[in-house]
Amino acid sequence: ITAPLSTTPALFDHTRVIYGDFNALPNKVRHYVEENVRLCKPDTIHICDGSERENELLTYILQKDGIIKKLPKYNNCWLAKTDPADVARVERLTYISSDLQRDTVPMPKYGAKSQLGNWMSPDDMDNELNMRFPDCMKGRTMFIIPFSMGPLGSPMSKIGIQLTDSAYVVASMRIMTRMGTNILQALKDDNFVKCLHSVGRPLPLTSPLHNNWPCYPKMTLVAHLPERNEICSFGSGYGGNSLLGKKCFALRIGSILGHREGWLAEHMLILGIENKTTGVKKYIAAAFPSACGKTNLAMMTPTLSNYKITCVGDDIAWMRFDDKGRLRAINPEAGFFGVAPGTSMKTNPIAMQTIKANTIFTNVAETSDGGVFWEGLEKEIEQGVKIKSWLGDEDWKKEESDRPAAHANSRFCTPAEQCPIMDPAWEDPQGVPIDAIIFGGRRPTGVPLVYESFNWQHGVFIGASMRSESTAAAEHVAKQIMHDPFAMRPFFGYNFGDYLKHWLSFGQKDGLVLPKIFHVNWFRKGGPNNSFLWPGFGENARVLDWIVRRCNNEDIAKKTAIGYVPKFDSLNLEGLEEPVDLDALFSLPREFWENEVNAIYKYFDEQVNDDLPKEIIGELKNLEQRIHTE
Ligand code: GTP
Ligand code: SPV
Ligand code: MN
């Protein structure tokens, strides 16, 4: 693979450079490009500079190809509709390759399939890649995207180069990452994460496209080769499969780098919460599984008027303990790739303001007045306006249709800088200091609104034991309660047992200011209609208030078998519109928790097996004991 670096201008008989200066590329980047031009054989090369002119060119190409259309109701907003077979992350086709299987996943017991990642041997991986990438870009343009995850120049940031044959991916990466010529200047001849992406549909086409959206679902593969610092994604143009800076780099490769270098890459939002009366401000990081409320919490409008929330990030946190022992977090992204359904002026007015300009919507419905629609906007659509569903049903009506207007995993892709409540320090190269970590998920039964861990180790156990109802963010169809430790199940880059040891190690070091750890559940159901017991969204400020006060060591917690919960009357419910059933929200049914403990035993035993740290099984035994003696 190590061909000599070229010293002359690009000399590919089949490929022309149509945008950018190939010779100005740093040597290592040029080498990487040359290697993959030889492999993929694009017609033309476009080196992205991140300019306005370039973006106009991209939108022109995307419109001409019928991939996006303008939404005249807003300013520079676009609607993309994918092939209905390419609408979410494909977890079963996402692989990590390493020499030793056990570096990637724990060895499951009894020959079970690992639920903690898919491993492939380097030889098999080479075969799979060779079945896909040769000539895959024929007739197309290869775009070269230099991008930084994290503010350029931050000691916590990392640079990647993505090669892609999708202009949609370029336009999205331009929003989600810091991209452009300045990245190459900062990179010089350093190493970078190599990100190769193809939709897998060379020209001329051999079969028709759906919605003009090139993809190849039957051959889709999202491959990670950490030993080569490389990601190769084929066949899908969708979000987490194709915007390689996001889940592939910032979480899977990121978690490996974090393990090696002593930091953490997590599926977490980061928010600032300021008490306006005292002026005291804290930062909180929170891990919820995909489509379980990170964006909404990160941008929430608190119903408690003495709090102000600011947003640092909505999906990914890179965190490192600094030399004073404080845990500091940056958001490696520059945009939000947020779930559209459920977003409204009532639930998330800040997101609604953010997406009014320069936004790419994917798989939402459109309105006859040139706007967008999705489930949750019923009360915000103007009279007489007609809806066209994401699948193209004209004059779609809820009462008459058996399918939703927008795909359940339809998304907006929008620049973070447009969010009116971005934290003043959101691009601080040092990151923001984290005071609390929250875990959470969709738990219809048994799990209370909020509880606090006894200490760091118990908190790590709570993260390890997380479970949540599956959502439309990946291919799982039936609504089932899945184990999703740390909200990272689809995103671990290395053995989950080693990941747990890494987290535990911070509890065993001296001189660290360990954040308190909490668990929340906005999704408990009950009552006559089995509806949500908690109003959620802006009302979640009441839970954040309790958490912040616990960080100030207020005496408002009482001990239970599973952790500390709010003492009677300590959760501020003043001014709540509808009364809530606190007993139902906080009850700890013994049978439920016995079953929960058994499910966690089984999961740890089968899935983590010999790699489970003894501290974690110890915490589980203690929990079991407390439940029995309570
Ligand atoms: P990813 O981007 O997939 O990682 O998801 P996310 O964790 O950012 O999820 P998001 O905030 O986009 O929420 C997903 C869905 O949950 C949306 O439909 C929201 O409307 C809904 N949701 C978010 N917060 C709450 C809440 O407090 N209560 C209820 N009932 N629903 C919520
Ligand atoms: C998620 O699924 O957790 C997302 C969306 O944030 S995607 O980028 O598609 O992975
Ligand atoms: Mn996510």
Summarize the structure.
By secondary structure, the protein is an alpha/beta fold. It contains 16 helices and 33 strands. Strands 1, 2, 5, 6, 7, 8, 9, 10, 11 and 12 form a ten-stranded mixed β-sheet that branches.
Computed structural class = alpha/beta
The ligands found in this model are: guanosine-5'-triphosphate, sulfopyruvate, manganese (II) ion
Secondary structure tally, helices: 16
Radius of gyration: 24 Å
**Strand composition percent:** 15-25%
| Mean of all residue-level pLDDT scores | 96
Q: State the low-pLDDT regions, or none.
A: 1-10
Distance between the termini: 63 Å
Q: Count all strands and give the number.
A: 33
- Described by the principal axes of the CA atoms, the overall outline is globular
Taking the sheet with the most strands, its summary is:
10 strands, mixed
Approximately how much helix is present in the residues? 25-40%
Topology (elements, then pairings):
Blueprint: E1 16-19, H1 27-40, E2 44-47, H2 52-64, E3 68-70, E4 78-80, E5 94-97, H3 101-104, E6 118-120, H4 122-130, E7 141-149, E8 158-164, H5 167-176, E9 178-179, H6 181-187, E10 193-198, E11 221-225, E12 230-234, H7 239-242, H8 245-261, E13 264-266, E14 269-275, E15 281-287, H9 294-298, E16 307-313, E17 317-321, E18 327-330, E19 335-339, H10 349-354, E20 360-362, E21 365-367, E22 372-373, E23 387-388, E24 411-415, E25 432-440, E26 450-452, H11 456-464, E27 467-469, E28 481-483, H12 496-507, E29 516-520, E30 525-526, E31 531-532, H13 541-551, E32 557-559, E33 564-566, H14 582-586, H15 590-608, H16 614-629
Parallel strand pairs: 1-2, 2-7, 4-20, 5-6, 5-11, 8-10, 10-12, 15-25, 25-29
Antiparallel strand pairs: 3-4, 7-8, 7-9, 11-12, 13-17, 14-15, 14-16, 17-18, 18-25, 19-24, 20-24, 21-22, 21-23, 26-29, 27-28, 30-31, 32-33
Helix pairs in contact: 2-5, 11-12, 11-16, 15-16
Guanosine-5'-triphosphate is lined by residues 288, 290-296, 314-315, 338-339, 341-342, 347, 473, 522, 532, 536-537, 540.
GO molecular function, one term: phosphoenolpyruvate carboxykinase (GTP) activity
Cofactor: Mn(2+)
Family: Belongs to the phosphoenolpyruvate carboxykinase [GTP] family.
